[in-house]
Amino acid sequence: MTKFPTDLQKRLVSLTRDLILIPSDESRPDDIERCFSFIINHLESLDSVVIKKHCHRGVTSFVVLPKNMDHPKVLLCGHLDVITHPDSHSYRSHIADGKIIGPGSGDMKGPLAILLEIFMNLHTKHDNLHLGLAITSDEERGGDSGMRFLFNEIGLRCEVALVPDGGSLNEITIEEKGILHLAIKCNGHSAHAARPWLGINPLERLVDAVYRLREDFETLSKDKDHWHPTCTFTTIKTPNQTVNCIPSEAEGTVDVRFPAPYTTEQILDKICNLLGNEIDTHTIMSAEPTQFTPDPLYLSVSEEITGKPTIQKKEDGGSDARFIGQHNIPVIVSRPIVGELHSLDEWIDINSMETFYLIYELYLKRKLL
Ligand SMILES: [Zn+2]
Predict the structure, then answer these.
(1) For residue range 172-200, what is the model confidence (pLDDT) as tens digits?
(2) Distance 196 CA to ligand 1 centre (A)
(3) Residue 79 CA, ligand 1 centroid: distance in Å
(4) Are residues 261 and 308 in the same domain?
(5) N or C: which end of the chain has fewer CB within 10 A?
(6) How far does the centroid of ligand 1 lie from the alpha carbon of residue 332, in Å?
């Protein structure tokens, strides 16, 4: 039997597909601004809210709060940036097998469409609703000038934050690993490759260091769930272009993930010791591991709407939720059913978008009305 899409599904699908068409990635700042304009054009039709733009180090964010209310009870949080695909024509979508397929559909233009729709609908129906919305544009590059800036420097606060950027429909994320992104660099001494004893090869030193790190981190692996620190080399390069020349310098990048109770300081110390003093280390980005405490009301509402138990899960990747959780604010990280994230075939399941909307709607009604 064919199931016809509901009006709500139609609205969510068209809004998501409109958002996907705008290639709002880091390399296209004009499109990031265009995507914000598109969203603000919708939000401006609400009389009961104040829209405030923030800009930090060239990164734009918007906070939308009810009039005369600085600290809403519930804050909806999203990001409109997507990862970069080289061809701007790849930012389009199609529908197949009950899914919207296209870059950014799951992370997180589909969830963002749900946030906008629910925010608009509830504020239209109810006056003085304690519901805010924050939208940032740098989540895919660490969130430092977006969500971190809003909470740590602007002082944005709420009683509960909803971040549909992890987990799944019945899977609530309760813990995220910490992150350390390092640039490592080694200087050597250039020489003709026929007389390697006259040179010091920084590329070989860097490769040796890779082995030391790998051997050491392998001793930390303990279970099949991989809930232990991992260390992965992601780039390695040298300016040298010549086959018979020993390079004078070499550099690379390392991505390290680690669960609590490890701290960034401990992990960094460990890595510096293993690399030795011939290799310089520079921290590109770091984040402590975070644990979240989801609102029990949300768990029970999810179970009521889906008819299935919720599972509390640990997540290897990090999200903007950590900047909120740091302030001991309960954060709920769950989302519709998504897949193939960060690929051109990224998708979001349309039925689960509607179910997710209904979970948010019932939760917000019970929490706020
Ligand atoms: Zn995301």
Answers:
(1) 999 999 999 999 999 999 999 999 999 99
(2) 47
(3) 7
(4) no
(5) N
(6) 14
- Distance (Å) from CA 319 to ligand 1 centroid: 7
Same domain, 17 and 159: yes
The residue count for the chain: 369
Q: How far is Cα 31 from Cα 37, in angstroms, rounded to an integer? A: 10
Does 164 share its domain with 94?
yes
The DSSP bridge partners found for residue 234 are: none
Which residue segment(s) compose the domain that 328 sits in?
7-176+290-368
**pLDDT recorded at residue 221:** 87
State the distance from the centre of ligand 1 to the C-alpha of 140, rounded, in angstroms. 6
Q: How far is the CA of 74 from the centre of ligand 1 (A)?
A: 20
Residue 281's contacts (CB-CB under 8 Å, 6 or more residues apart) are: 182, 183, 184, 268, 271, 272, 275
Distance 186 CA to ligand 1 centre (A): 34
CATH number of the domain where residue 241 is located:
3.30.70.360
Q: How far is the CA of 244 from the centre of ligand 1 (A)?
A: 45
Ligand 1 centroid from CA 19, angstroms: 14
Q: Which amino acid is at 298?
A: Y
What DSSP string describes 175-201? EE-EEEEEEEEEE-B-EETT-GGGSB-
Q: Ligand 1 centroid to 261 CA: how many Å? A: 25
Distance, CA 349 to ligand 1 centroid (Å)? 16
The mean pLDDT value of the chain amounts to 95
361 C-alpha to center of ligand 1: Å? 21
Shared-domain flag, residues 23 and 112: yes
1 located within any domain: no
Q: Which residue has the tokens 């609102």?
A: 295
- Residue corresponding to tokens 């009810």: 66
Same domain, 145 and 187: no
Q: Ligand 1 mean position to 138 CA, how many Å?
A: 9
pLDDT of residue 5: 84
- Decide if 239 contacts 175 (C-beta within 8 A): no
State in Å: Cα 275 to ligand 1 middle: 32
Whether the predicted pLDDT of 139 surpasses 70: yes
Grade residue 2 by pLDDT with cuts at 50, 70 and 90. Answer: low
**Exposed e or buried b per residue across 293-304, where buried means at least 16 C-beta atoms within 10 angstroms of its C-beta:** ebbeebbebbee
